Amino acid sequence: MNDRLLQFLNAENLSQSQFADSINVARASVSHIIAGRNKPGFDFIESMAKAYPALNIEWIITGKGKMYKTAPLAAPVQAPGPAPAPVQEPVFQPAEEEIFPVEREPEIPEKPSVQIPEKPAEQPRKAPEKPVQAPRQPRQITKIIVFYDDNTFQELK
Asked: In whole angstroms, how far apart are CA 152 and each of 8, 87, 155?
């Protein structure tokens, strides 16, 4: 099926990413299917059928039949006869303003006056008061440990 999908993309002149976007699937999904790593699921095939109604789904799945359900329509053949009169398009006539533009000073809208209300005078902030603590007793040394460079130590009490 991956070969038929590649044939379809070539016939439609689509890149893998364009095709993936058109059927709303992840671009990696199309890449994996074409490389043969994954097989398409029902949702993938259903999305293809909805996005490309002329595609023969039986052909894409099994390889039976033709790529398209119907042959592409050929241009209708016209019987020979008098050639139609050429259609003359109206000629654009610019307005006189466009031919000779008048330079004008740009209008600057007046800014409305804005009155900012005065702020009340700020009062200085006071630092929060700390609770009063009882005086601490002086600490006393209970032990000293001395470490030496030969990885020994001495404990002094």
From this structure: 83, 109, 10
Length reported for the chain: 157
Buried b (16+ CB within 10 A) or exposed e, 89-102: eeeeeeeeeeeeee
- The band of 77, judged by pLDDT with boundaries at 50, 70 and 90, is very low
Enter the pTM of the model: 0.43
Q: What does the pLDDT read at residue 75?
A: 41
Q: Which CATH superfamily is domain 2-62 in?
A: lambda repressor-like DNA-binding domains (1.10.260.40)
* Domain definitions of the chain by residue range: 2-62
Nearest to 16 by CA among 1, 35, 37: 35
